[in-house]
Amino acid sequence: MVVDTAEDHASRIGDVIADADLDAEYTVEGHISRDVGFSIGQTARDRSVDLILMGFPEESPEITQRVEFDAPCDVLFSKGFEGLVPEIPATVNVGAGGGPHHEALLSLVNELAAGGSEVYVINVSPTGGAGTAEDPESTLNALPEAESVQVQSVTAPSVADGLVTTAAENGGILVIGASRTRRLRQ
Predict the structure, then answer these.
(1) Which single residue of 34, 158, 173, 174 has CA 20 to 30 Å from 90?
(2) Yes or no: is domain 91-175 CATH 3.40.50.2300?
(3) What angle is formed at CA 185 by the lines to CA 101 and CA 82, rounded to 5 degrees?
(4) Record's Gene3D superfamilies (predicted)?
Protein backbone atom coordinates (compact mmCIF):
# COMPACT_ATOMS: atom_id res chain seq x y z
CA MET A 1 0.00 0.00 0.00
CA VAL A 2 2.87 2.40 0.81
CA VAL A 3 4.54 1.69 -2.53
CA ASP A 4 1.24 2.24 -4.37
CA THR A 5 0.73 5.58 -2.60
CA ALA A 6 4.26 6.75 -3.51
CA GLU A 7 3.76 5.71 -7.14
CA ASP A 8 0.38 7.51 -7.27
CA HIS A 9 1.92 10.72 -5.88
CA ALA A 10 4.80 10.59 -8.36
CA SER A 11 2.41 9.92 -11.23
CA ARG A 12 0.16 12.84 -10.22
CA ILE A 13 3.14 15.21 -9.95
CA GLY A 14 4.44 13.99 -13.30
CA ASP A 15 1.06 14.71 -14.91
CA VAL A 16 0.94 18.24 -13.49
CA ILE A 17 4.45 19.01 -14.73
CA ALA A 18 3.73 17.48 -18.15
CA ASP A 19 0.61 19.65 -18.46
CA ALA A 20 2.72 22.73 -17.68
CA ASP A 21 4.77 22.04 -20.83
CA LEU A 22 8.06 23.17 -19.27
CA ASP A 23 11.13 23.64 -21.40
CA ALA A 24 13.38 21.92 -18.87
CA GLU A 25 14.83 18.50 -18.23
CA TYR A 26 13.30 16.90 -15.14
CA THR A 27 12.70 13.55 -13.49
CA VAL A 28 9.83 12.68 -11.16
CA GLU A 29 10.47 9.86 -8.70
CA GLY A 30 8.63 8.51 -5.71
CA HIS A 31 10.68 7.37 -2.71
CA ILE A 32 9.81 5.63 0.52
CA SER A 33 11.97 6.78 3.39
CA ARG A 34 11.94 7.32 7.13
CA ASP A 35 14.09 10.43 6.67
CA VAL A 36 12.74 12.46 3.75
CA GLY A 37 15.43 15.16 4.04
CA PHE A 38 18.19 12.56 3.85
CA SER A 39 16.50 10.89 0.88
CA ILE A 40 16.31 14.19 -1.02
CA GLY A 41 19.98 14.91 -0.38
CA GLN A 42 21.08 11.37 -1.26
CA THR A 43 19.08 11.42 -4.49
CA ALA A 44 20.68 14.75 -5.40
CA ARG A 45 24.14 13.25 -4.78
CA ASP A 46 23.36 10.04 -6.69
CA ARG A 47 22.01 11.96 -9.70
CA SER A 48 24.63 14.79 -9.61
CA VAL A 49 21.83 17.33 -9.33
CA ASP A 50 22.70 20.99 -9.98
CA LEU A 51 19.79 22.57 -8.10
CA ILE A 52 17.01 21.55 -5.73
CA LEU A 53 13.73 23.52 -5.81
CA MET A 54 11.57 23.02 -2.72
CA GLY A 55 8.04 24.30 -2.35
CA PHE A 56 6.38 25.37 0.89
CA PRO A 57 9.43 25.10 3.18
CA GLU A 58 7.50 26.40 6.20
CA GLU A 59 5.23 23.34 6.19
CA SER A 60 8.09 20.91 6.87
CA PRO A 61 10.83 22.80 8.73
CA GLU A 62 12.77 19.67 9.72
CA ILE A 63 12.94 18.44 6.12
CA THR A 64 13.73 21.93 4.86
CA GLN A 65 16.62 22.38 7.29
CA ARG A 66 18.05 18.93 6.56
CA VAL A 67 17.99 19.54 2.81
CA GLU A 68 19.33 23.07 3.16
CA PHE A 69 22.35 22.07 5.22
CA ASP A 70 23.10 18.65 3.68
CA ALA A 71 22.42 19.20 -0.02
CA PRO A 72 25.37 18.79 -2.39
CA CYS A 73 24.10 21.70 -4.51
CA ASP A 74 22.22 24.97 -4.21
CA VAL A 75 18.67 24.88 -2.87
CA LEU A 76 15.90 27.31 -3.86
CA PHE A 77 12.71 27.70 -1.87
CA SER A 78 9.38 28.64 -3.40
CA LYS A 79 6.40 29.82 -1.43
CA GLY A 80 3.27 29.18 -3.42
CA PHE A 81 2.85 28.45 -7.09
CA GLU A 82 0.67 31.30 -8.32
CA GLY A 83 2.34 33.24 -11.08
CA LEU A 84 4.90 30.64 -12.09
CA VAL A 85 5.13 32.38 -15.42
CA PRO A 86 7.27 35.25 -14.21
CA GLU A 87 6.58 38.87 -14.93
CA ILE A 88 9.42 41.34 -14.94
CA PRO A 89 9.15 43.04 -11.53
CA ALA A 90 9.24 46.84 -11.47
CA THR A 91 11.72 46.80 -8.60
CA VAL A 92 14.56 44.39 -7.81
CA ASN A 93 16.39 44.58 -4.48
CA VAL A 94 19.79 42.91 -4.11
CA GLY A 95 22.23 42.93 -1.23
CA ALA A 96 25.76 44.28 -1.55
CA GLY A 97 28.26 41.51 -1.23
CA GLY A 98 30.34 38.85 -2.83
CA GLY A 99 30.92 35.15 -2.86
CA PRO A 100 29.89 32.46 -5.34
CA HIS A 101 26.18 32.43 -4.48
CA HIS A 102 25.91 36.19 -4.70
CA GLU A 103 27.83 36.36 -7.97
CA ALA A 104 25.65 33.64 -9.52
CA LEU A 105 22.45 35.61 -8.92
CA LEU A 106 23.77 38.84 -10.47
CA SER A 107 23.21 37.50 -14.00
CA LEU A 108 19.51 37.17 -13.08
CA VAL A 109 19.50 40.74 -11.76
CA ASN A 110 21.12 41.91 -15.02
CA GLU A 111 18.41 40.16 -17.05
CA LEU A 112 15.68 41.75 -14.96
CA ALA A 113 17.34 45.17 -15.30
CA ALA A 114 17.57 44.71 -19.08
CA GLY A 115 13.85 43.94 -19.00
CA GLY A 116 13.12 47.27 -17.32
CA SER A 117 13.39 46.60 -13.59
CA GLU A 118 14.71 49.34 -11.32
CA VAL A 119 17.57 47.95 -9.21
CA TYR A 120 18.36 48.80 -5.59
CA VAL A 121 21.63 47.56 -4.10
CA ILE A 122 21.13 47.43 -0.33
CA ASN A 123 24.28 47.90 1.74
CA VAL A 124 23.59 46.94 5.36
CA SER A 125 25.80 47.91 8.31
CA PRO A 126 24.72 45.52 11.10
CA THR A 127 24.57 47.00 14.60
CA GLY A 128 23.91 43.76 16.46
CA GLY A 129 26.94 41.73 15.41
CA ALA A 130 24.97 39.49 13.00
CA GLY A 131 26.92 39.65 9.74
CA THR A 132 29.40 42.13 8.34
CA ALA A 133 29.04 45.18 6.15
CA GLU A 134 29.98 44.57 2.51
CA ASP A 135 31.48 46.86 -0.12
CA PRO A 136 28.81 47.43 -2.80
CA GLU A 137 31.45 48.10 -5.50
CA SER A 138 31.78 44.46 -6.65
CA THR A 139 28.00 44.19 -6.95
CA LEU A 140 27.79 47.44 -8.91
CA ASN A 141 30.60 46.33 -11.26
CA ALA A 142 28.71 43.09 -11.98
CA LEU A 143 25.55 44.95 -13.07
CA PRO A 144 26.44 46.47 -16.46
CA GLU A 145 22.92 45.89 -17.82
CA ALA A 146 21.31 47.97 -15.09
CA GLU A 147 21.05 51.52 -16.37
CA SER A 148 19.57 52.82 -13.15
CA VAL A 149 21.04 51.39 -9.98
CA GLN A 150 20.52 53.03 -6.63
CA VAL A 151 22.66 52.16 -3.62
CA GLN A 152 20.89 52.30 -0.27
CA SER A 153 23.07 52.28 2.84
CA VAL A 154 21.12 51.27 5.94
CA THR A 155 21.80 50.16 9.49
CA ALA A 156 19.92 47.30 11.13
CA PRO A 157 20.42 44.75 13.92
CA SER A 158 21.46 42.14 11.31
CA VAL A 159 22.14 41.99 7.59
CA ALA A 160 18.99 39.88 7.14
CA ASP A 161 16.85 42.44 8.99
CA GLY A 162 18.25 45.27 6.89
CA LEU A 163 17.73 43.47 3.59
CA VAL A 164 14.19 42.31 4.31
CA THR A 165 13.00 45.59 5.86
CA THR A 166 14.48 47.78 3.12
CA ALA A 167 13.20 45.53 0.33
CA ALA A 168 9.72 45.61 1.87
CA GLU A 169 9.83 49.41 1.86
CA ASN A 170 11.05 49.52 -1.76
CA GLY A 171 8.53 46.97 -2.99
CA GLY A 172 9.28 44.46 -5.72
CA ILE A 173 11.36 41.37 -5.07
CA LEU A 174 14.44 40.63 -2.97
CA VAL A 175 17.07 38.51 -4.70
CA ILE A 176 19.70 37.06 -2.37
CA GLY A 177 22.61 34.70 -2.68
CA ALA A 178 23.48 33.13 0.65
CA SER A 179 25.41 30.03 1.56
CA ARG A 180 23.74 27.29 3.55
CA THR A 181 25.43 28.59 6.71
CA ARG A 182 23.86 32.05 6.38
CA ARG A 183 20.18 31.25 6.29
CA LEU A 184 17.93 34.28 5.99
CA ARG A 185 14.80 33.61 7.99
CA GLN A 186 11.41 35.01 7.05
Answers:
(1) 158
(2) no
(3) 85
(4) 3.40.50.12370
